[in-house]
Amino acid sequence: MSVQREKSAPPKGTILVVDDSHSVVRILTGMLRDLGYDTIEAHNGTEAIALAARRQPSLIILDFLLHRNFDGLEVLRRLKNNMSTCHIPVILLSAAESPQDKARGLRLGADDYITKPFSPLELGARIEMILRRTETEYSASPTTRLPGSIAIERIIAQKVESREPFAVCYCDLDNFKAYNDTYGFAKGDSVIRQSARVILDAVRNKGNPEDFVGHIGGDDFIAITTPDLADPICAEIIGTFDRLAPLYYDEDARRLGYIEEKDRQGRPARFPLMSISIAVVTNEEREITHAAQVADIAAEVKKRAKATPGSCYVRDRRKTDADQNPR
């Protein structure tokens, strides 16, 4: 007997099911939908890796014995070695109880291992446990499902420690509060989700496969790439954001180019349509020795970006803190 969720209830999350057996996928997706989850399907390793990066599911259920492209362990290894998918929890699914296979999967980063057959109740309980743990460990944003502050801090610390060239792009929406106050939280959340997609798509289109995107909170995001690709990524983010942002306003606001709302002191004011400011911090010109230094530099650079009307990005090219102006 399956437990059907109410049609009006929002989905608990989106789960990517990866199995080269169409019948297994059909059974699993049916179970998951009854448990309250939306589902995405992949039938080989290449498709699974691409869908995970593009759709950012809440969790992945991965067949251990894939036969096309790569086996399940190779797919798992690639997912966990890619910064855009390493935070997504993975449950390995196997037809046989093998302690050796289970150990290999867990060492590669799997979050759980389930042997067929299993009950919907067991599957649901395991998924809920993993998602709760993931929310705690990575502080994932419930709005965008992107990795949150804990994961971001870990990635930046790893980059600093490795001493490899990196660029951290801090993205901040301008005039979002006024928009949120005027149009409401539901439409504000839509803007946040759209902004996440814009940044993810730009990093996917212009960046490296292992680049990282996170959601610091509110209207603040972060993208981590290499110094050579920061400029094209920022340019694409700005171009796409500026094209889409006006669509979230009513016709009058688009025509006027602003909305009227109270400022933080409660005084009536005019606020331009939303734009995006990006502060770019790299270690190509100066040595960065700890993660907190990245945040300190970004705070300075962001002030300059925010002082420029409209969308822009400012890249820190100073060799030391004594130098005056990022460019």
Q: What fold name stands as the CATH topology of the largest domain?
A: Alpha-Beta Plaits
The structure class reads alpha/beta
Largest sheet: 5 strands, parallel
Unreliable sequence segments: 1-6
Question: What characteristic shape results from the CA principal axes?
Answer: globular
Return the domain count. Answer: 2
- Total DSSP helices: 11
**Would you tell me the overall average pLDDT?**
88
* Strand element count: 12
Reported CATH architecture of the largest domain: 2-Layer Sandwich
The Rg value, from CA coordinates, equals: 22 Å
Class of the largest domain, according to the CATH hierarchy? Alpha Beta
The portion of residues forming beta strands comes to: 15-25%
The CATH homologous superfamily name of the largest domain equals Reverse transcriptase/Diguanylate cyclase domain
Explained architecture:
This protein is of the alpha/beta class and 327 residues long. It has two domains: 14-134, Response regulator (Rossmann fold, 3-Layer(aba) Sandwich), CATH 3.40.50; 149-315, 2-Layer Sandwich (Alpha-Beta Plaits), CATH 3.30.70. Helix 3 (72-80) links the parallel strand 3 and strand 4. It contains eleven helices and twelve strands. 38% of the residues are buried. Helix 2 runs parallel beside helix 3 (72-80) and helix 8 (185-206) runs antiparallel to helix 9 (227-244). The chain starts with 13 loop residues before the first strand and ends in a 12-residue tail after the last strand. It is 44% helix and 20% strand. The strands form three sheets. A five-stranded parallel beta sheet has the order 2-1-3-4-5, sandwiched between helices. The protein has a five-stranded mixed beta sheet with strand order 7-8-6-11-12, sandwiched between helices.
